[in-house]
Amino acid sequence: YTKVGRQVTFSAHIQASSGVTGGSGTLEIRGLPYTAAALSSFWFSSYIGYFNNFTTYGTSANDVKLLGPIQNSNTLRFHAFDNAGEGGTNPNQGNVQNGSLVFFGGAYEVS
Question: What is the DSSP string of 45-87?
Answer without folding.
Answer: EEEEEEEEEETT-SBTTBEEEEE-PPTTSSEEEEEEEBTTBS-
